[in-house]
Automatic annotation (TrEMBL):
NCBIfam families: drrA (TIGR01188). This is ATP-binding cassette domain-containing protein. One of its GO terms (cellular component) is plasma membrane. Gene3D superfamilies: P-loop containing nucleotide triphosphate hydrolases. Residues 8-20 have a biased composition (Basic and acidic residues). It comes from Halomarina rubra. It comes from the Archaea. Residues 21-252 form the ABC transporter domain. Keywords: ATP-binding, Cell membrane, Membrane, Nucleotide-binding, Translocase, Transport. It is found in: Cell membrane.
Length: 357
């Protein structure tokens, strides 16, 4: 796999930005034998908002853990903020913030107390703590409830508190592991604002997500991981351009597997796509990507009807990152979910612990 190349602008004086993350041929095999990460190479320059996108179980969390020294890679080399993941573990950990998927908030404590605890754990000088706590409470809009116990907070508020605790030591690089999973759209949008603010202030962000829209909204550049391999990389616009054409999504009344397969055959055999484009099953029907999707859409619907395939609805649109995933892997992201058992320990891995603590 080729390393993910940088497209971020150089500095004003023309010198290239140093790399915040440099990972070469990284692999992680768990003791169970699961090869969770296979030959992953990526480079993230300072200041970038980088997205690591992939379905459930693709290897996102394992990659982050290898980057922040919570797991030892089975193979490959990693430097983060110039620190080697094997040789400079302590310095590396002190130089990054990490918001894990599971909350680290102590529900019995208030927001202020949670942040103060994180300041102590990260060694923020005593004299600076009060101001730092107020600054972070403001950043994540929790000042008004700062002295309420965290158990009274909504899911979104707890996530915001997690963001604040990951930032207490002002790390130049922050890892956000699926930070908005399970949140409603309003809470998600609010978190996006903070992530943008953090990045605008100069912090490099490495975000993992299953939400293609999230990656599209926030990220300068993306890598898509599937089954431990990086399968695509580029800016959101570049990835969408890879789809090559517009997308016709057709929902079927009978959307069982054989009906969807039949619809795929009908589209392929219709000859309407002039030998280009692609057609794949979706969860509820079929998706046709073609340079001619807009022009031949109606004819395709007629062909389906004539073949006895009942159509419930359809839509033609410009490609989204969902379409990118489908085009790259041939399967919708949602159909590729595998269960992350999370049971056995990695072959060389130390136990999980919060970075910097
Ligand atoms: N501790 C572990 N022991 C054994 N296998 C594991 C362990 N943790 C994860 N895996 C497996 O490694 C693979 C990658 O999992 P990982 O959690 O890195 O994926 P992910 O992309 O972060 O997914 P999710 O969105 O579910 O967090 C999966 O097959 C998962 O079942």
């Amino acid at each position: 796999m080729h390393p993910v190349s940088s497209t971020t602008d150089d500095r004003p004086d023309g010198s290239p930005r140093p790399d915040a993350i440099r990972a070469q041929h990284v692999s992680v095999t768990y003791a169970s034998g699961t090869e969770a990460v296979k030959d992953v190479s990526l480079t993230v320059p300072e200041g970038e908002f980088f997205g690591f996108l992939g379905p459930n179980g693709a290897g996102k969390t394992t990659t982050i853990k290898a980057l922040v020294t919570l797991l030892d890679p089975t193979g490959g080399t990693v430097t983060v903020n110039g620190f080697d993941v094997r040789r400079d573990r302590r310095a590396l950990r002190a130089s990054v913030g990490y918001m894990a998927q599971e909350t680290s908030v102590d529900l019995e404590l208030t927001a202020r107390e949670n942040i103060r605890f994180a300041c102590e754990a990260y060694g923020v000088p005593r004299a600076e703590r009060a101001a730092r706590i107020d600054e972070l409470l403001d950043l994540v809009d929790l000042a008004a409830v700062a002295d309420d116990q965290a158990k009274t907070y909504s899911g979104g508020m707890k996530k915001r508190l997690d963001v604040a605790t990951a930032l207490v030591h002002r790390p130049p690089l922050v890892f956000l592991d699926e930070p908005t999973t399970g949140l409603d759209p309003k809470a998600r949008n609010r978190l996006w604002e903070y992530f943008r603010e953090i990045n605008d202030a100069g912090t490099t962000v490495f975000l993992t997500t299953q939400y293609l829209e999230e990656a599209d909204q926030l990220c300068d550049r993306l890598a898509v991981i599937d089954d431990g391999h990086i399968v695509a990389e580029g800016t959101p616009a570049e990835l969408k351009a890879r789809v090559g054409g517009d997308v016709l999504d057709v929902d079927l009344i009978d959307d069982d597997e054989s009906s969807r397969d039949r619809a795929v055959r009908v589209v392929r055999e219709s000859g309407l796509l002039d030998g280009e484009g692609s057609v794949s099953r979706t969860e509820t029907g079929v998706s046709v990507t073609s340079l001619h999707a807009r022009r031949v859409g109606t004819d395709l619907l007629v062909a389906l009807r004539d073949a006895g395939v009942a159509v419930e609805g359809f839509e033609v649109h410009s490609p989204t990152l969902d379409d990118v995933f489908l085009a790259i892997t041939g399967t919708p992201a949602s159909e590729r979910a595998t269960s992350a058992d999370g049971e056995s320990e990695p072959s060389e891995g130390p136990t999980d612990q919060k970075v910097g603590r």
